[in-house]
């Protein structure tokens, strides 16, 4: 017998709920919002998927017997030819990827500076503001290079910003209400960018193939060993993806300014 049968959960909010092993039959998930959720090894049969948006990591996703992940990857690379450089396999490739990101972000920064300062604190569709994005990227670099690779147990600046769903962790900053200026946020970000650049400058094949030494004490990432290449790939992915998100949201902010000015 079903645990919940004929139950109306419309409008309910499920947070930190474990659905592993659950079975959903004859259910409606229309207009459902799913965020930061593990959907590993999910099987859906007899479903109807219309007007669906999926953003995230896609691997081994079969639709009607076809693994769509390689198709998605190929299309994303076609749209953004430089994207392939974010998958390097040697030190020179990582250094080149970092230079590519630097050039791309310079263009994004010019676009951001053309907007009024207050617009850079505005959210688009509930996402981080531009300034918050810069703060989060500082957190990512400090965490995966400063802490995981270089062994600093507490590498963060007070303005670093973890992802929203991260539990409060002793010693890890998460001041969501801070409103630093763009230049203040850029100073924090530049500090972390230089940390990564200095490490990559002297990166050797042996270091790239090694694992990190676990860091003692609470923080992020958790205190265990990680492949150095994995840590660096995470940083590249954060930088690449969040710039695209920022460009997407800057377009909306520009439209808002145009609409406001035309009135």
TrEMBL record:
Membrane spanning residue stretches: none
Superkingdom in the source lineage: Bacteria
Limits of the DinB-like domain: 101-245
Signal peptide: none
InterPro entries: DinB-like, DinB/YfiT-like
This protein's name: Pentapeptide repeat protein
Species, as recorded: Terracoccus luteus
């Amino acid at each position: 017998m079903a645990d919940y049968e004929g139950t109306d959960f419309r409008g309910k909010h499920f947070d930190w709920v474990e659905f592993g092993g659950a079975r959903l039959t004859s259910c409606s998930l229309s207009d459902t919002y799913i965020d930061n959720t593990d959907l590993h090894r999910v099987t859906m049969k007899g479903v109807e998927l219309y007007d669906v948006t999926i953003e995230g990591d896609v691997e081994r996703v079969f639709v009607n017997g076809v693994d769509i992940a390689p198709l998605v990857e190929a299309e994303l690379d076609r749209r953004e030819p430089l994207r392939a450089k974010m998958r390097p396999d040697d030190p020179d490739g990582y250094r080149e990827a970092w230079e590519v990101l630097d050039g791309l972000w310079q263009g994004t920064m010019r676009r951001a500076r053309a907007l009024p300062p207050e617009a850079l604190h505005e959210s688009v569709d509930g996402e981080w503001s531009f300034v918050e994005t810069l703060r989060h990227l500082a957190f990512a670099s400090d965490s995966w290079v400063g802490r995981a690779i270089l062994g600093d147990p507490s590498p963060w600046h007070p303005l670093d910003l973890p992802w929203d769903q991260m539990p409060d962790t002793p010693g890890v900053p998460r001041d969501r209400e801070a409103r630093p200026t763009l230049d203040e946020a850029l100073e924090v970000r530049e500090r972390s960018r230089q940390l990564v650049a200095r490490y990559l400058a002297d990166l050797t094949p042996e270091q790239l193939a090694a694992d990190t030494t676990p860091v003692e004490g609470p923080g992020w990432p958790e205190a265990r060993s990680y492949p150095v290449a994995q840590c660096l790939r995470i940083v590249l992915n954060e930088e690449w993806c969040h710039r695209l998100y920022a460009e997407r949201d800057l377009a909306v902010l520009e439209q808002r300014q145009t609409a406001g000015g035309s009135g």
